[in-house]
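FAQ
Q: What does a multi-component entry look like?
A: The components come first, one per line:
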Amino acid sequence: MTGEPVSSQAQARPITISVDAMGGDAGPAVVVAGLAKSAKKNPNIRFILHGSEELLTPLVAKRRNLQNRVQIRDARNVVTMEDKPSQVMRNGKGTSMWSTLDAVKKGQADGAVSCGNTGALMALSMLRLRKMPGVNRPAIAIFWPSLNPQGFNVMLDVGADVKADAEDLLQFALMGVSYARNSMDLAQPRVGLLNVGTEEHKGRAELKEAHGLISKEAETSNFDFVGFVEGSDIPGDVADVIVTDGFTGNVAIKTGEGTASLIRSSLKEAFQYSLLSRIAAVLALTSLKRLSKRIDPRRVNGGVFLGLNGTVVKSHGGADATGVSAAIKLAFRLAEQGFSEKLAARVASAKEPPQDEQTSAHSEAS
Amino acid sequence: MTGEPVSSQAQARPITISVDAMGGDAGPAVVVAGLAKSAKKNPNIRFILHGSEELLTPLVAKRRNLQNRVQIRDARNVVTMEDKPSQVMRNGKGTSMWSTLDAVKKGQADGAVSCGNTGALMALSMLRLRKMPGVNRPAIAIFWPSLNPQGFNVMLDVGADVKADAEDLLQFALMGVSYARNSMDLAQPRVGLLNVGTEEHKGRAELKEAHGLISKEAETSNFDFVGFVEGSDIPGDVADVIVTDGFTGNVAIKTGEGTASLIRSSLKEAFQYSLLSRIAAVLALTSLKRLSKRIDPRRVNGGVFLGLNGTVVKSHGGADATGVSAAIKLAFRLAEQGFSEKLAARVASAKEPPQDEQTSAHSEAS
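Then the predicted structure of the entire assembly, as tokens:
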């Protein structure tokens, strides 16, 4: 199901990413700069760019490596960070966000990227692209810096919905496995279910139920289930995929981000304390930059919406050109691998009775 | 209700802390070293120490400043980290943990400290000390390093229970306010309710209800309600007290701890990369130590159980002597301030109809 050789012809086909130029904190110039960064590195990429044509045409014209590779689609309205998802679902038509998703819906683009309002983007994505057959609750998955050999874990859901029942958590596990396999080249990802302790009797009822469901599924699908994991394992090395509901996941990643930023500012303060510490800081600059690169959120910018008919990548609202380019790269890579189709196949196969998938000769007891 | 002048006589009265010598990862020698540290700094402190008399007598005898200040109570059984709370509730009698709480129950000690199993300690505390009148769900509160002037926020619940309804969250807010006032000398603490966004329409139903309840209470009690806060605000400066359920709170603090430890190890790696970076590290040592001290979890070691008839401080299982001493200091300070009585008064006053508490001349509308 996974790991089929991709023919060289398929690899050579240009891939088109539909990009929302509006709605980010830094404005369309930064988005266009991100496009230019990606275009420079990747000859195989094309763009459909959505927003005010008047604004975008001169921005694109200035970038030589975007010539003949960007189609601009005029969209006059913008979804702001303050707009409620329910409002956007009623009045979203005509916004750059809608137009961005529409190009994926119509098969004109292979994936979408937006820096806009997460709630609105999820609501419009569900409306326009619809949920994948067999998926009850889509999820947002992110990469999180970790002690794993690959340097990152996949975590989901980090905020598509505030709740998830046991069945949803099983689907998150399956989607997370597929995402980890396709984005990080892991043949046998390890899945952990987030809880307040690792003992099986701990936590909420739906978690105990999900423990059973995921454990059973691991026997027939190609992943390892490491059982319950704790918050400290999110940046740890016991699992590659961390499964949780969108409320807990959202609080966890924001706590992690807040903690990292507290340490960053304390580190800065510590180095500005005295003349000697300033000298040390200059000497330590390379080391600090190395650290900074390792935990730079821009390098892993992009939450992926899983469980929809099409790939949507949510870039951080405050992303700079490097961040936008990283989100585009992620959308490109997933499109190149036919990730959306692979994911649909995996979700569908889990719905079939296990005996249809594989007839196991050995006992399944215990 | 708060801030009454404490008479000098009351201040001079020796305060006795009941300490569980067993159950920590590092064993009783470290606990006794923690006692010695506290005794050295604080002439007003006395101890009742619980555990194997055979083990403890020589450990205490070696410390000169513990002479005549420690009463050892022989308790042969130990609650281990693996014991389930339900088992401990049935068979806990005779353990050092039980004996530690018993001294508080009987009024022989002014507060209890244990490095043992959190779930078991909470279960035994509820059994022995009972819930405070008017409290439905006790909570565990901790200090969390933050950008606030006082350097820390209070966060609760971080794991007493996996759930909390709107009424529980209101009680957590009141208990957190009282704790922040007594432990950090804040006259008017700012309370934030943890959610996935700051807009009032966001989040789970019980959070919206709690928002209304806490908001109303803030009008008559001496605290500010800043509304919903996000994970990034836990180490931030918008609130002094972060209120959440025990599941979310537990995941959040462990994620924060994990992130800090990932950065610590990456920082170490970055500085060991080359000869130059090693030289820089030597020069930067003072700055790094300053940072390390600022975010040192040992300095704020101690989760406090709120909502029980008596003060119980849970020290980190892996605490060293400095950590144990910090937990003892916290228990001492709370006892000295009569915190448990103040907290009971606050919870009780919130139960009364507001007009009994204060007749407000101005309109309460909006």
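Q: Is there any commentary attached?
A: Sometimes. For this entry: The longest strand of chain B covers residues 45-51.
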